[in-house]
Design goal:
Blueprint (H helix, E strand, L loop, with lengths): L1 H30 L4 H8 L2 E6 L4 H6 L4 E7 L2 H4 L2 E8 L6 E7 L9 E8 L6 E7 L5 E6 L2 E6 L2 E6 L6 H4 L18 E4 L10
Antiparallel strand pairs: 1-2, 2-3, 3-6, 4-5, 4-9, 7-8, 9-10
Length: about 200
Amino acid sequence: MHVIKTRLATGLLVCGALATGLATAATASSAAPPDATTATAAAAPVVKLHLTPPSAELAKCMPKAKVEIKVKLTTDDVGFDDFDISASGLPPKTAFTVFLLQQADFPFGAAEYIGDITTDNKGRAHNEFKLIVQEAFSSNVLNGQRVRTDLNQVGMWFAEPAGDDFCLGAGKGAVTPFDGDDEAGVQAFNSLHTTPLPAP
């Protein structure tokens, strides 16, 4: 009986030591600094842009519109940048396409389609895109020579031709090619009046 009690006590002591060790390891783990990727993302430089309507007519139709973009420049560290877009005061339940552009307003030049946002019933929208932004460019070969065009501006279009009808009137807005199906409305917002994205 004495042997059994001794073994039981020893077993309890070992279990207690193991539990203490696990608790200490868990505490140390939770207190450990974030990994390199998280630390790099947290320290990455951020660029902010404010988009505005390209015409007085659209601005009058959307007097409370606010479109803000925040780009966290992390391509060198994680292989892509973080493009965060938030909007409010837009027409409700309306889809918009988002592009990186050579030139913010007409004739726009080279363009890259990067994503969509769609407003809720209160005219608010948000999305986050993972892509290369700071080093975005278009490349062409003209007369045997490579031509690189940096894409440092941002534009948004009504994704459907009828999307701008609330302001311009039914069928009065131009049908543009700024959507995947090659049919969009007019440009709704651009970065013409804000600091452009930094060149690489």
